[in-house]
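Sample entry (75 residues):
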Amino acid sequence: MTESELAQYLGITTQDLTDLISLDTAKRKQFSGGIYDTYSFMPYMKLPNGSHIFVKSEIEEWVRYHSLSYKEGES
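Predicted structure, serialized as tokens:
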């Protein structure tokens, strides 16, 4: 999926998606390569032109992971 396709799929604006990617990039820089949960980071591949592509099934798992994390945090 392209960035615009993913934004539409998630029901957010492309600017919201850009903000999520920026937050994810900052989180990755802080992490510095230790052990982490597979879907704690947004799954994407950055292309040489600076755009990102996404695999729908991986995004669905990422959403599921964060939905469960959110629900557990409510308790």
